[in-house]
Amino acid sequence: MTTKFSLVIYIALLGIFYSCKKENDIERLQADFVAESEVVRVGEPVTFSDISTGKITKWNWKFEGGNIEESVLSSPTVVFEQPGNYEVSLEISDGRGTSLLTKEIAVGYNSIEALFEADQTIIIQGDEVSFTDLSVGLIENWKWEFTSAEGVVMTSTEQHPKLHFNEIGIYQAKLTVTNPDFSDVEIKENFIEVLDASNLSVDFTSSATGTYEGQSITFTASSVGSVNNWLWEFEGGSPATSTDENPTVTYSRPGRYKVKLSGTNIAVTKEKVREGYISVVPGDQLAAYFPFGGNLNDVGPHKFVPTVKGTVTSAGIDRKTYENNAAVFNGSSGLVVADHAAMNFGTNDYSVSVWVKTTLTRRMMIWQESGDQGSGDNQTWLRLGANTTSQLVGFATEDSDGGSFLGMSEAEKGKLYDNVWHHVVATRSGLKTTVYIDGVKAKEVTSTKGIKNVSNGGDFKIGMQRGATSDSNYFDGMLDDLVIYNKALTAAEVAALYNF
Q1: CA-CA-CA-CA torsion for 324, 325, 326, 329, nearest 10 degrees?
Q2: Whole-structure pTM value
Q3: What is the full per-residue pLDDT of the chain (500 aa) written as tens digits?
Q4: Residue 290, domain member (yes or no)
Q5: Which of 5, 82, 106, 428 sits most deeply, having the most CB atoms within 10 A of its CB?
Q6: Which of 234, 278, 286, 283 is nearest to 256 (CA)?
Q7: Where residue 312 sits, what CATH number does that domain have?
Q8: CA distances from 126 to 131, 268, 437 (A)
Q9: Are 127 and 215 part of one and the same domain?
Q10: Across the strands, what pairs with 440?
């Protein structure tokens, strides 16, 4: 055998070898795949993983019933949206050939959770309630049951039923949801309360019970039972009437005004009337107004928010017998209003008006401006009970050059410890200081030491006295409608405040 012939034979055998090897490689390209979960459920993502053999360069998946129809990823994730049997196929390629495998995948129902809500839960007899199914999962059947304590039962198989409750009572609500594989129940005890249409009461609250002329107050209606229509009547207000549930009203004139609210349903109309509920003080040179209705804050132009020392509440019953409408002081507490130009009276005229109710005769401060350094400091104050004879009420103006003091006996109408509401106004006009009791001038004195400079950097105190070393002379009782003006009120203006 020649060398040339041997080479030809070798090349031929080598070609046969590589040809057989290529054929064997193609045979080893075999499509196969698995799902990550043996149980595939609706709505739950499932990842399919390629476990094919061969040198794969391309994947082509097809998913019947899936949220994606095709994928070229090696391990795609699919969500099946309906239960059933679906074909999943994988075709793989190595660039020379392909392999295809199709499997049938069973998709079952998922677990479910019963949830629901209602558009209202307290209704009038005969009203309709809309129920909304909020259940989670693929649900095929709904069963609603509403059972009263008296044994009345109402049912529905709708997903979102609307039902009229014609029998008075308190109802349990029960929702059962099912699919072929799962079920769940939610029960809400005492969920629907059906009231007698004639059993209706209405009430209201307000953002404040006092303001000054030109300002507004917002009112909020409330009721026990269903109200179809509201009608407000605002004495002295604008608008004078309103059908809004929560109207805002402007008061342009000083006075004390009635508020009336009527609520109507299919059976009855009920009313709530509060006589003299809103107090509107004059706004001319107003520094602050603390009506103490529902809170302790100022509603005047500066909106002061006092710091509470100890415990002071607005839970008192005012002179119109309205609850939560007067400040209550316990004999160891007070309010502090931070120093402000509006209450730095200096040598100017001013007035402080307040309603007072107490049973005690001991020394108690109603209010104090400045005076933190004690005697001889710039200050002015109104005090009760320094003694039981000539100083049942005391009104002072003082500075480093001495003071001017007005003391009142019982004969001068200074007796205020009778557990009755009394209106006390202290004014300064130049050299004159005056105290009015219950709308009438009770006593007036003229300073013999000039006009006192009554203010410095000290705070304004309510219901307490601040001295050089400690606080003292705490008020014990109730205060209401404390109003401060940067002018001396006239007798007519004082009488008007008293008659509010």
Answers
A1: 20
A2: 0.65
A3: 454 444 434 444 434 444 444 444 445 899 999 999 888 999 899 999 999 999 999 999 999 999 999 999 999 999 998 999 999 999 999 999 999 999 999 999 989 999 999 999 988 888 899 999 999 999 999 999 999 999 999 999 999 999 999 999 999 999 999 999 999 999 999 999 998 877 789 999 999 999 999 999 999 999 987 788 999 999 999 999 999 999 999 999 999 999 999 999 878 899 999 999 999 999 999 999 999 999 999 999 999 999 999 999 999 999 999 999 999 999 999 999 999 999 999 999 999 999 999 999 999 999 999 999 999 999 999 999 999 999 999 999 999 999 999 999 999 999 999 999 999 999 999 999 999 999 999 999 999 999 999 999 999 999 999 988 899 999 999 999 999 999 999 999 999 999 98
A4: yes
A5: 428
A6: 278
A7: 2.60.120.200
A8: 16, 14, 58
A9: no
A10: 437
Same domain, 409 and 489: yes
Buried b (16+ CB within 10 A) or exposed e, 376-408: ebbbbbbbbbbeeeebbbbbbbbbeeebbebbb
Domain around 87:
33-108
Which among 366, 296, 353, 383 is positioned nearest to 500, based on CA atoms?
A: 353
